[in-house]
Phospho-2-dehydro-3-deoxyheptonate aldolase
Amino acid sequence: MDDHVPNKGISNGISHSDWSPSSWRIKPIKQPVNYEDQALVDKATAKLRRLPPIVTPTEIWKLRRALAEVAQGKAFLLQGGDCAELFDYCNDQAIDSKVKLLLQMSLVLIWGGNKPVVRIARMAGQYAKPRSSPMETVGGKQMPSFRGDILNGYPSDQRAIDPDRLVQAYFHSAATLNYLRAQLASGIADLHNPMEWELGHVGDPELQQKYTKIVESISESLRFMRTVGADTAGQLETVDLFTSHEGLLLEYEEALTRKLKHPSNRNVPPTPKPAPKVSPLTGGALIDPSIPQDPETTGHYNTSAHFLWVGDRTRQPDHAHIEYFRGIENPIGIKVGPTTTPADLTQLLDIVDPRRETGKVTLITRYGESKVAELLPQHIAAVRRTGHTVVWQCDPMHGNTRSTTSGIKTRSFAAIFSELAAALRIHRECGSILGGVHLELTGDAVTECTGGSQGLQDEDLGARYETFCDPRLNEKQALELAFLVAGSQRG
Ligand code: PEP
Ligand code: MN
């Protein structure tokens, strides 16, 4: 999967000008797609270009401002959802259960951190998956790898790349977000309604008591707010929920990138500390942050989701994905792993955030529980030297994947919490801020990760192992992780 598409004779050098939604096409690319019939791809992207935006610049800037708060430690970011979202998950039960879980987790985290929580679902578009090999073996049979519903299907007879899926992705994304918006407007997040917390699975009586206390404390606070009339603006009736996906399939992202008018209130707070004029690691000149925000009235927005991230496999500074990402106004994430060097990080930030806008970039760290203590402090120090103010988000899932003796891909709850707890502690020790968490989870009672209060063992994974890519926390494990994080936040 690491083949480069030939560079068509144009320099690999990083230029800060000459960006367009299609300028990624002249760069080498990781995870390329070899479509058999280019005419069908052109037809699909032409259709996508005519379709209306799924999200708007006003919403995108609302999230940008919220992430600026996160970067400064004034809010906490919760991002979660499936590893690979299937078109099939576009149904009311699957959407409702995920929204309810994210909402409950966010209440626990508000209680823990005593600050607002920004919620981003990995949903309504998380259809493209990077793969380490073009082929995989399923049920003893070799076949082309499943690359996500936007390219091919999981069943063995649907593994051929089908360009029409690009258009299907748009409609599934739009239908999911339409239902999400309708449910939020109809009161799915109405905090006046008592919630079902279902803590019966927690076998340990001490833990059960601890969690019950947290829930009681949250319910008590909500009751109090109601009694004193603190909800005059109807703020308890709904919440903001933003959408996100990995910006992997650039044909799709390009077709939904539009030049649109900026909303009038797009300012984010300036970066609080003075920044050096020259990047200490790359030696490259940086744009002076005292220069006022771009006076242009329009900018390029990726209208397929509020937030997009670049994966660990596609974040090379001189390659296609970073070229695409540097030109959009959306807040963006970059996965940071064991192979990211401090110099890479500095260079990447200078490319995608030349104006050093607070919270424009979220660094999503995913080292693994055994590597976080060694690598995170180096990365924190490198970023501090650059003068960029980022959101630091911990993804404790992707560095902790293991195989059971029978070859099932899983993750242990203990390893996940261990990396997360270490990230919290290390940021604190370094005088930095852990701004949020990035989780793979589902609202259903699956058995894909081991551990947690249900005590799932390797042998139990077969009961409901339903993921089509990485193992997800089930609803109980995800909520429990929120309880543990909240406990650590309270000290
Ligand atoms: C993912 O988030 O599903 C993923 C593939 O992560 P990473 O790029 O960190 O490996
Ligand atoms: Mn994953």
